[in-house]
Amino acid sequence: MIVTRFAPSPTGLLHLGHAHSALFGWRKARAAAGRFLLRIEDIDPSRCRPDFESAILRDLAWLGLDWDGTVRRQSEHLAEYRAALDRLSGLGLLYPCFCSRKDIAAAVSAPHGPEGPVYPGTCRGLAPEIAEARKAKGDPYALRLDSAKAALLAGPLTFADEREGETPVRPGLLGDVVLARRDAPASYHLCVTLDDHLQGVTVVTRGLDLFHATHVQRLIQAVLGLNIPRYAHHLLLTNAAGERLSKRDGALGLAALRDAGRSAAEVRALAGFPD
Ligand code: GLU
To answer: At a CB cut-off of 8 Å and minimum separation 6, what does 108 contact?
Structure first.
């Protein structure tokens, strides 16, 4: 059975781009008599707000979407993320990184990836006794995935995308990504990969802006022995200037459109899904 999901972060109000993504996943599930799940990605306490979550649920229901089962909230599953981090650590695939954003930006040798500078690996070779001493001193640190080591363990990988076909994984594409943040117990890549597995998602439906993330997430699936979903990365809606929609395009927010008198059917059509 097909299981898809929509996984918004409650860091703002939904706009037409989110509506496109949600409808894309919902239609795919419903057309195949499958399940459509809703997950709230609220792992980042500094940016997520409960009032945004309520607004998301309200806007989706207004749009005519329904979801199966209960809503999964990442903030309620920290022990599961911790256990996955412990397994990765046991495999020797994590290392503590004490670099601040400023340190990373200042690293002249930082190689460039598709999403900007890639972490140059400054802390990868840190002697364990130095790392332990810094931890004991209370220096804040993140945990990074040693992507080269993980790639060696996993061997060659691919993922199946409905638009792009069978795609070879480039394990180092985004560098050694952070899996546990200094200021949050886990990171986007870890939580999303584990959740898709635990929720039995069979087709990950999301925007093409996350295509690069799939390379990392496929690697995490391999080393943790998780289920391997298919992927359907969809095109992104753009504003009049041809830029990807963002919170700045307030007028294209679902609540704003509703308040301006648009019907749910009109908004579904604007989001690319006429009835
Ligand atoms: N929470 C992510 C976002 O709002 C989406 C996660 C995903 O679909 O993989 O961008």
So the answer is: none
